[in-house]
Design goal:
By secondary structure, the chain is an alpha/beta fold. It has three domains: 1-153, Pectate Lyase C-like, CATH 2.160.20; 157-216, no CATH class; 220-304, Orthogonal Bundle (Helix Hairpins), CATH 1.10.287. The chain contains eight helices and 13 strands. The chain has helices at 14-19, 23-33, 158-174, 178-198, 202-215, 221-241, 251-262, 275-304; strands at 44-47, 50-54, 59-64, 69-71, 73-74, 79-84, 89-91, 99-101, 109-111, 119-121, 129-133, 139-141, 150-152. The strands form three sheets. Strands 3-6-8-10-12 form a five-stranded parallel beta sheet. The protein has a five-stranded parallel beta sheet with strand order 4-7-9-11-13, with no helix packed on it. A hairpin with a 2-residue loop joins strand 1 (44-47) and strand 2. Helix 3 runs antiparallel to helix 4, helix 4 packs antiparallel against helix 5 (202-215) and helix 6 runs antiparallel to helix 8. The two termini are 53 Å apart.
Amino acid sequence: MDQSEKLVLAEDRVADLRARWTPEATVAAVAFLESRPVAYDLPTMEHGGKTYLDLRGLRIEQTQIDKAYLRNVNLRWAVFRDVGFKNARFVGCNLSQVAFTECYLRRAQFEKCDLVNSRFDSCDFSQARITDSRIDFASFKNCEVGLQNIEFHKDATPRAMVRVCRGLKLNAMSMGNFADAGELTYLEKSYERHGYWRDKAWGKWLGSAAQDWLWGYGEKPWRLALAMIASIVMYGTLLYLIDGLAAGKTYWEYVYFSGITYLTVGYGDLAPDTALARFVSVLNAGTGIASLGLLISSITKKVMYR
């Protein structure tokens, strides 16, 4: 295995790569993954100045490879079905377009790996960690994986992070993990806003920033509640400055009038007596109706997803 084998393939096709794996070669690869002695020269390859063990296209089913330690292994296009990787550690491995199906990845660690376009279906990620790894276009379906399992790559572009967060959000929703789904929704929209800034789409960025400030894209209703209180005080102050009610009213009476107008209560004990005050009151009521609708929508979603 310390002797490099230069693979010459006319095309880097999946069929060519998988055709290499005879029963003898597959047994040797499994033995290597299980850290057992191997009396077989497994292929290697050079990429980016590093030597990788070339296990591209490998297919393994129904076995246990617990506590495996893999460093600089190219497993692109590999297929793992019903394989146990408990406490396994992948460091600097190419796992792009790898399919993990019904795999047990409890306490597994992926460090500085390429997981682009990899597919995880019905996998258990309990206490697993994905750190400093590229997971662009990676898909997770029916997987027990949460935000606590993933440390996002620092150099990932905003658009890549939008895709990652969206995929993880859909998986979280399918698993009924709505707390993570809500947080991922916020992260997705936040990275989308960063992308607008990077692309100099100032109009979209401003609209997205306003939504974040107002109610955290629907995930932070307490922000909207604070904005509603601020709006009531603001409209009350404005009416006080233009002296829109009957003479002799105190500042707090103006705030009270603003509140019952904003909340569309309208007791009728106070009323604007100038055209400008009536116009401001209409704006106040319109703002209140819109913000109440948003608040009810946000809180309802939070309650239903508990």
